Amino acid sequence: MNSVLRSRQTAYLALLLLGTAALIGGCGGGSYPSPRVAGQQTTRYPPQPVPGTGPFARPRSLQQIGLPAEATRAAIPRDNPQTAEKIDLGQKLFFDGRLSVDDTVACSTCHDPARAFTDGNAVSVGIKGRTGQRNAPTILNALYNKTQFWDGRAQTLEDQAVLPIVNPSEMGQPSLDAAVARIASVKEYRKAFGRVFGRQPNGLDLVSAIASYERTQVSYDSPFDHFVAGDQGAIDTAARRGWALFNSRGRCNKCHALSQDRLDVTNFTDHGFHNIGVMVVPRNVVAMAHLAEQSVKAGDMVAVDRAAIQTDMSVLGRFLVTRRDSDIGAFKTPNLRNLLLTAPYFHDGSHETLWDVLDHYNKGGRRGDPNLDRDMQPLGLTERDIDDVIAYLASLTSPDYRKPALRELARQRKLSQTTRPYRDNVKAFASK
Ligand code: HEC
Ligand code: HEC
Fold first, then answer.
1. Distance from residue 333's CA to the centre of ligand 2 (Å)
2. Which of 174, 234, 290, 401 is most solvent-facing, going by the fewest CB within 10 Å?
3. Is the pTM of this model over 0.70?
4. What number of helices (H) and strands (E) belong to the chain?
């Protein structure tokens, strides 16, 4: 615990110090040696209305079947305990466009509770219609993540929250202090910060409140959780067979389980990073890695954030954080709950349906990539196998999202009957 706290403080301080100097020259030209900056449109874009807090936004019950009680307690940092008023303040901030430089983009713009806290886009869109390079993950169950972001560049939810606020393609504030000043200009916020923290708004309290709210977003109680709790009929035969395949011939448990030899029924991640060969357009990653070494200061989270969201060095993944060659193209193994609400898939949103995802795994990823994880193998799954694994994945939907998930499953199934851009029968059925 202690070291976690220490690293949290250090990381946070580093950000604050960087805050003003590094951020100002950041985007325009000047100090940030810029490779091709992709997707940075600055054309006018009618700002989308900020998704408001509806029934899906409420703090969730801790009494859900399948909820890991001990891990949930352990995910609350000692220096940021949960209180009802702090959570309430965090919720207001999460849904407030005034956190962004032009009042148009809130956290909820890209993490909409009605979509299980994602945005439905392949890659996210921030202020002035600027697109980034990555798909927005859900914040449901993010409190259990050992690291945050696809490349794990932040450790805690508190550290994480600073980065979108100051990223020029997301909320665009010149510094965290500028965001604090905007919030402090609102009387209700001054009062609320006073009540919760006993002082005027400041950066640390702001991200602490947001993180407290995020830690209330726990999502279990799915048909699969009821099945694990002993209700055999909670999922159908197809889903039961899919779960067995997940842990055997499908090899999913090689990464989507805490350990390869114990079934994982909770979060379906090893908290590790793997290159599973998602990159759709082949790129010269070696040249890109050299560029990153020269242009992105190692350990500078703000610089890594910009490279990840705003440049095509984004494809380097975990390498941007660790600078280890073996991490080139490696991304974090995500949790697999509520997938029917979080489409499209993978770090770049390149795969539209779960059939596309399964087609990708079935051929063993993009073969021939020297950094491809050795656990990626052609699987030889039949169409029925694929349907069954998807039936199992669909059973990980929490009850709140049952209806939209059924609609989305039907949409994906229909699409998959005509469009399977990632299916490769020759490779899928090749011997290992
Ligand atoms: C413009 C869209 C956008 C906005 C605004 C935004 N995010 Fe995100 N968020 C993303 C994207 C895209 C990622 C993944 C980026 C990456 O991994 O490089 C992400 C990642 C995250 C993660 C990590 C989850 C995980 O599983 O690793 C959390 C937590 C999160 N955002 C919370 C927030 C909070 C809190 C705010 C507001 C302060 C916010 N986001 C604002 C798009 C956005
Ligand atoms: C070698 C490790 C590994 C194996 C094996 C593996 N996964 Fe993954 N999975 C990952 C990683 C890492 C990602 C994120 C990769 C990326 O976006 O580049 C991922 C992403 C996904 C996603 C997308 C989730 C999202 O939110 O976008 C789904 C769905 C998924 N995996 C399901 C499966 C299934 C089903 C299997 C078995 C057929 C499987 N995985 C096998 C590591 C693995």
1. 6
2. 290
3. yes
4. 17, 2
* Residue found under tokens 């909320």: 171
Compute the C-alpha angle 107/108/113, nearest 5°: 140
Predicted confidence at residue 301, as pLDDT, reads 95
Residue 422, pLDDT above cutoff 80 = yes
**Cis link prior to 344 (omega < 30° from 0)?**
yes
- For residue 367, give both structure tokens: 């073969």
Number of C-beta neighbours around residue 106 at 10 A: 21
Nearest CA to ligand 1 atom 10: 136
What residue owns the CA closest to ligand 2's atom 34? 252
Closest protein CA for atom 11 of ligand 1: 136
For ligand 2, what atom is nearest to the CA of residue 379?
38
- pLDDT tens for residues 4-29? 334 444 454 444 434 433 333 333 32
Is the sign of the CA dihedral 277, 304, 94, 209 positive or negative?
positive
Q: Is 109 in the pocket of ligand 1 (CB under 6 A)?
A: yes
Q: Which ligand is nearest to the CA of 138?
A: 1
127 CB near ligand 1 (under 6 Å): no
Domains of the chain in start order, with CATH, are 2-214 (1.10.760.10), 223-277+332-428 (1.10.760.10), 285-331 (no CATH)
Token code pair at residue 276: 């599973």
Distance of CA 288 from the midpoint of ligand 1 (Å): 24
Query: In ligand 2, which atom is closest to the CA atom of 389?
Result: 35
The 10 Å Cβ neighbour count of residue 246 is: 22
Percent of the chain clearing pLDDT 90 (strictly above): 80
Average pLDDT estimate for 356-385:
92
**Tens of pLDDT along 305-330?**
999 999 999 999 999 999 999 999 99
Q: Distances in Å between the alpha carbon of 44 and those of 71, 76, 100, 121, 196?
A: 45, 41, 17, 19, 39
State how far Cα 211 lies from the chain centre: 15
pLDDT of residue 5: 36
Residues 43 and 41: their CA atoms lie apart, in Å, by: 6
Q: Tell me the C-alpha distance between 135 and 122, whole Å.
A: 5
Q: Which one of the ligands is nearest to 157 CA?
A: 1
